[in-house]
Design brief:
2 helices; Translation Initiation Factor IF3; elongated; alpha+beta; 106 residues; 42% strand
C-alpha cells in the first residue's frame, strides 16, 4: 500500500477515488506513567513512557487506516494526515486519515 501526504504520486495516475479512510486509537495513560510525568515536570526532560505510547499509537492508527483502505479496495492512500487530542482526563486519541484511491503506473 502506497501512503503519501501529497495529492499525487509521481509516476502513478489515480484511476478511482474510493473515499476517506481512517484509523483511530484511544489509549489511556497508566498511573505509573502519570507519576513519572509529574516528576519529570518538576525536574525537566523527556517523558519517555509518553513518547513510546504516542509512537506506538501513531503506528497502530496508521496500520488501521491502511487496513480500512484495503477493505475499500484501494491500493494507495493520498493526502495522509494525523490528528491527536485528549479524550477524557487521562486518555489520548490519535487518528490517521487520508483518501483511499486506486492508482496505476503511468
Amino acid at each position: 500500500m502506497l501512503v503519501v501526504t501529497t495529492e499525487n504520486i509521481p509516476g502513478y495516475k489515480v484511476t478511482e477515488v474510493k473515499g476517506t479512510c481512517f484509523g483511530l486509537i484511544v489509549r489511556s495513560r497508566g498511573i505509573g506513567a502519570d507519576i513519572m510525568a509529574q516528576f519529570k515536570g518538576i525536574m525537566g526532560g523527556e517523558i519517555k513512557q509518553y513518547t513510546k505510547m504516542l509512537e506506538d499509537s501513531r503506528k497502530e492508527a496508521m496500520d488501521r487506516m491502511v487496513k480500512n483502505a484495503n477493505q475499500m479496495g484501494a491500493n494507495a492512500i493520498i493526502m495522509a494526515r494525523f490528528d491527536s487530542g485528549e479524550a477524557g482526563s487521562n486518555m489520548s486519541e490519535i487518528v490517521a486519515f487520508g483518501t483511499a484511491v486506486v492508482v496505476e503506473k503511468e
